[in-house]
Specification:
The chain is an alpha/beta fold. The protein is built from 18 helices and 7 strands. A 7-stranded mixed sheet has the order 1-7-6-2-3-4-5. Helix 2 crosses helix 3. The chain is globular and about 85 Å long. About 30% of the residues are buried.
């Protein structure tokens, strides 16, 4: 099977690539060729796309057994560094860009390479591309917060999937939403004469929900649900039977410990079980937003089968479909379920709140997540992954499901405009909560970026004259004192 080689990046000579192209022209399917040559189907498709350049380069007989086109400058440093990287990886070490640049300069000095050699960021990127090398378990240093413009995201993502032979079924996206789980429409509260329930406390009584699914929609993980209480009375006898992964934190936010626990004990386990069901293996890429809570520990990054990549900031809905579309749909479904539950009872709102608890909230948000179809998720990713749209019948059904069928009978109490205004107000309040949560994150990201710059300055200064090194150390010491 093509994915059986996902754990090992193969180098295919141009002679083999010509064979693959020939068989493609003879009508052999990419799936069969992927299995025959131990490659991913995406790699076979890449060869077909680049057929002209492959044939042109292969016209030279001496190039048939080559695996690379470009000559390698500073060859001894390149080969020694690659050997060193393989040795470190065999020992299970996690490598970083800075570590490789420092080692490259040491090898340059040790073996007396060209005097003009500099282990620059550009040289390092070429080195990694030559050897299909990706460091650690997170695409943070080279596709991080501002590494590329949002409009470049689809191109970068597709390049990563091709280079790493990552199947689309193994690309997951996780996004977080704040949910005011007790809020009801103002019109309904006034009708019931229950103005007391429209308090600031209820508006701010939020839980945090994280949704995660692969881009094909074939594998949707249980919701990560974060509440402020560890053992609510409503969950006393059913904590182990919940349809969500329940966690607690005083502010109901997803913190690094919560995210790392979910990633290690739920996400990885669930994905591996899914791959077993599909009778395959392969690398897995998890896409997350840039948030202070969604940072993996060094220990979590050691598993080279799983990678984490941060989505670019300030992107459009086409660039972050989970955030802009799936979350919006899920919230609407939840709120209509909540509204129907209130309206279908003869009791007043005050009595409803006495009966309504966090277990009811968990059940309704889990039901809403279940109603999001695989077709909807897959269609939302078609722009980014450059694939054609599927039948949108299920997507239309999702939209229809956002409107209760029996809402007309409650027209005298509340109408569609009231519901729309209520949903809009909730989303506005929830976005404020998210912004408050991310304020500290933005400061920490800036500090981290400055720290990274000064760390790079220290490495660069080591090979420079003493007066440059002295001034660099002065700046670095001043930064540390601040």
């Amino acid at each position: 099977m093509a994915s059986s080689s996902a754990g090992k990046i193969q180098q295919i000579t141009y002679e083999k690539r010509l064979e693959i192209l020939q068989k493609l022209e003879e009508g052999v399917s990419p799936d069969k060729l992927a299995a025959e040559y131990g490659l991913h189907k995406r790699t076979i498709q890449k060869y077909r796309k680049n057929a002209t350049s492959i044939r042109q380069f292969s016209d030279c007989t001496s190039c048939l057994h080559s695996k690379r086109i470009r000559p390698v400058l500073h060859g001894i440093v390149d080969s020694r560094l690659y050997t060193w990287v393989m040795e470190r990886r065999a020992l299970g070490d996690v490598l970083t860009n800075n570590l490789l640049q420092k080692k490259a300069m040491e090898l340059h000095i040790e073996f007396g390479g060209p005097s003009n050699f500099v282990a620059s960021n550009g040289w390092l990127e070429c080195f990694k591309r030559r050897h299909n090398l990706r460091l650690g378990g997170v695409y943070r240093e080279w596709v991080g917060v501002n590494a590329f413009a949002p409009e470049k995201f689809p191109e970068e993502l597709n390049r990563i999937l091709t280079d790493e032979d990552i199947f689309e079924d193994d690309v997951y996206v996780m996004d977080v939403m704040s949910l005011m789980w007790k809020a009801l429409p103002q019109r309904l509260l006034l009708h019931e004469g229950e103005q007391w329930v429209n308090s600031r406390k209820i508006k701010k009584d939020c839980i945090t929900v994280a949704l995660c699914a692969n881009t094909t929609g074939a594998h949707k993980l249980p919701i990560l649900f974060v509440h402020k209480y560890a053992n609510p009375r409503a969950l006393k006898h059913c904590m182990q039977l919940l349809p969500v992964v329940y966690k607690n934190e005083p502010n109901s936010w997803i913190t690094e410990p919560i995210f790392n626990d979910w990633y290690t004990n739920y996400f990885k386990q669930s994905v591996k079980e899914y791959q077993v069901q599909q009778n395959r293996v392969g690398k897995v890429l998890l896409l997350v937003n840039n948030s202070k809570g969604l940072i993996l520990s060094e220990e979590a990054l050691e598993d080279c089968q799983f990678k984490q990549m941060f989505l670019p900031s300030n992107t459009t809905s086409r660039m972050q479909p989970m955030d802009q579309s799936i979350i919006t749909k899920c919230k609407k479904l939840f709120r209509h379920k909540l509204l129907c539950r209130v309206l279908q009872h003869d009791i007043g709102v005050q009595q409803f709140y006495l009966d309504y608890d966090i277990k009811d909230c968990i059940d309704m948000i889990a039901e809403a997540w279940d109603m999001i179809t695989a077709t909807t998720i897959q269609n939302l990713w078609r722009h980014i992954l450059c694939r054609s749209s599927l039948d949108n019948t299920s997507e239309r059904q999702d939209s229809n499901d956002c409107v209760p069928e029996d809402m007309q009978q409650f027209g005298e109490i509340i109408n569609e405009n009231d519901i729309t205004e209520w949903i809009s107000e909730c989303e506005k309040e929830e976005s404020i909560v998210i912004k408050e949560d991310n304020t500290d994150s933005q400061h920490s990201e800036i500090e981290s970026e400055i720290d990274y710059i000064f760390h790079g300055l220290a490495i660069w200064a080591e090979t420079k004259p003493e007066f440059i090194k002295l001034n660099a150390n002065i700046l670095i010491d001043y930064f540390k004192q601040k």
